[in-house]
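Researcher: Let's run the pair from yesterday's discussion. Sequence first, then tokens, for each.
Model: Starting with the first of the pair.
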Amino acid sequence: MKSKILPLLILLPLILTPASYAQTPPELPGGQNSGYGIEPGTLYPGSAVLEILAAAENEIDAAVEEAYAEGYKAASLRYAPDTAYYAALSEGIKRELAFEKKKTKWFWPSLFIAGGFSFFGGFLTNALVAR
């Protein structure tokens, strides 16, 4: 009998713990939205609500476009010198890369040609000396 009671006593706090955390949600005060002219408990027609939402969407879109334009202008003015510097740097690096490509254009073909002449010269020297 004791062996059955001990596990139940151990599990009892686990069962009771979630119930101790239960709370009732706080109630909102009655005149919370009075600053917007909305009366709680009053029904508004759907067309009025849609007009208000459309006006809010238009204002939000206009504010976003204005903020984007101001931020773009500020960034353009702030980073214009850096942009010019990096454009010039990029052009210089492109020129150096083209120059290096021209320098090494004939490296591998000349290496194979020199290797072929060396092999042929060694073969010819061996043929002349061995006789």
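Model: Moving on to the second of the pair.
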Amino acid sequence: MDDFFKQLDVLFQKGDPTEIENFIREYLKKLDDSGDEMGKASVLNELAGFYRGISRYEESAECFKSSLEILDSKGLKQTIQYATVLLNYAGTYRLTGRAYEAVSLFLETKKLLEDIGEQESYKYASVLNNLALAYQDTGDTDKADEMASTALQMMKRNESSEHEVATSLNNLAAIKLRKGDIENAEELAAEALSMYDAMEKENVHHAAALSTMATILFRKGNFESALRNYEKSLELTLRFFGENIECSVIRHNISVVYSAMGNTEKAVEFQKNALELMERLVGPDDHRSITYRQMLDDLYKSAKG
């Protein structure tokens, strides 16, 4: 399995989603043929994570479920391996807008880790980080702040890797921003970005930190800098994941910046692209598509004067 993960890492750095999917699926077929159920559970988890990254959420959920079923059948429900897949599965729920169900699954994962004595592990801090994001989605920003702050303290206390600390910093920055605490949000986001900038390899989470900083700069009226950060975030997201749901969100945010700058033509262009992608990924009746459509209509009206 070491060779699988090494090659997968190389493919992710190249950033060709089709090549990544083909490689994982071919490896999965080999495991099927050999009857390696444990290897299959691990690779299904990777395939599910990949599908989640490119916004193919139904396929992601099915792969996570299959991985969990294999682990359960092997008597591994009370293990960190099962908790890892359950954590990832909950993340797919969050990204599809099912925030309360995601919270429930994250809490289940948290309890599982507590039951097996993993309260000080990186995985436990990761659960707290994800719980913070889910609580934020439900509107419970105080609970989100508590979870994200605890996760960051754990990461620093346990001397976690730079990318893990940077991710925790950005999560907390996004929550502070949501609460209107701009100054602390900017300080946290800047620290995260300085860590990402110093990394030898470009990190998939760098894009999220750039978007957080872009939003902070926009709130402060620094539109040009906000635009540059959103553009870099879009570039990285496309490189690692292709046209996923985050690309739609970033294009919408770029549209908002152009509108604030008085460039309605560019605002319409990016909002139209954001809407088209959102509708393709989640359907025209999803609340996000409806909101984006209304915003595009408003821009058209503004353009007509």
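Researcher: Give me one sentence on the second I can quote.
Model: The two ends are 61 Å apart (CA to CA).
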